[in-house]
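Board notes (copied after class):
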Amino acid sequence: MNRHRALAATLLALTGAGLGLGGCGFTPLYAAPGVTSNMAVIDVVAPTGRTGYFLGQHLDDAFAKNHSAPAKYSMHLTLGEARYPRGIRTDNVATRYEYVLTANYTLTNLPGGDVAKKGTVRVELTYDSADQPYASIAAAEDAQDRAAEEAARRIQLEIASWLATRETKASTPKAVAPPKA
């Protein structure tokens, strides 16, 4: 019974804390001025290849790309991929692999081309390697897609955070020195 009371007290405290956020000036990340509208006008230039294609598609989806508006930013990506055998059997055959995707991005302003933001995300995940060749290939390709999706999510979060803080700084009025008497 004490466990149920503790759970109820915790839920009540969390609910009360959640209700109190409205009065403290909390603004959700994607509700900050200019975040979603600026993300929708980022033109993603992904490298060729399977993983580059997946990452470009996931970023267009994550940014909610507005194809009818002119691009305000251009994002160039470079990828690094590595696969490491894990879970080695006694006959020296790997049963699992670790797939590591490193995505470097450079966000530039358009039309000038000056660098607005640079960043790197690294995604590590594992997948099973089956004895059947087709199943092993399918698992490796699925790992590429999952890693690209996670990299896109992390890039989206970094860009949204950057846009939110940049827009907040730009809209905050600067202090004016009082006139000298």
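Comment from the instructor: The longest strand covers residues 73-88. Strands lie at 42-45, 73-88, 94-109, 115-128.
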